[in-house]
Design goal:
The chain has one domain: Rossmann fold (3-Layer(aba) Sandwich), CATH 3.40.50.880. The chain is built from 6 helices and 12 strands. The longest helix has 16 residues. An 8-stranded mixed β-sheet has the order 5-2-1-6-7-11-10-12, with helices on both faces. With 193 residues, the chain is α/β, with parallel strands linked by helices.
Length: 193
């Protein structure tokens, strides 16, 4: 199966939150998987300055319904302040896109109303806030609730991406990526029935 992935980039995005999943997905593509990953930016292509000062050129504007999987990495709360981004997240999920959040990127999904009443997780320092906003917080590294997949803090984005490769492309491709990266999936993947 092919998997089209977009990673939503913005000023203040945490480097590991996006590069961990990007690395996993890139290795999956090189290993022969039908995976295509694109860094996207709201509104227009351009450069973003990441949380620790890294500059990244983002080649593509975000088209909310034009992917299979959208990954929203954590960082500062800039996206939470954008009503247009929050509306587009809802529009993406309503059009059939699986929306995934890494670390505090899950709080952006919460601000859009996507986690309300649903199993989810986030960075341990934000779990109380996520619960207060109506998320059903699960103590797991990755929580898969169908069209909403969330991951805990920072490095759990690697596990989220490996899980999505397993789920959408099969375990043999995920094992191949683990071998290349010399990394084994960590923690629990909680799945809704």
């Amino acid at each position: 199966m092919s998997l089209r992935v977009q990673i939503l980039m913005y000023d203040g995005v945490e480097e590991q939150d996006f590069i961990g999943p990007r690395d996993v997905l890139g290795h999956a593509e090189r290993a022969g998987g039908q995976v295509q990953t694109t860094l996207v930016r709201p509104s227009a292509p351009g450069e973003v300055t990441c949380f620790f000062g890294t500059h990244v050129t983002v080649p593509t504007a975000w088209e909310p319904a034009n992917t299979d999987l959208l990954i929203v990495p954590g960082g500062d709360d800039q996206l939470i302040k954008s009503p247009e981004v929050l509306r587009d997240l809802v529009r993406a999920q309503q059009s059939g896109v699986v929306v995934a959040g890494v670390c505090t990127g899950v709080m952006v999904l919460s601000a859009a109303g996507l986690t309300k009443g649903r199993p989810c997780t986030t960075h341990h320092l934000a779990k109380a806030e996520l619960a207060a906003q109506g998320g059903k917080v699960i103590d797991a590294r990755v929580v898969d609730d169908g069209n909403l997949v969330t991951a805990g803090g920072v490095t759990s984005g690697i596990d989220l991406a490996l899980w999505m490769i397993t789920r959408e492309c099969g375990p043999s491709l995920a094992l191949s990526v683990e071998s290349i990266m010399e990394y084994e999936q960590r923690g629990v993947v909680w799945r809704s029935s």
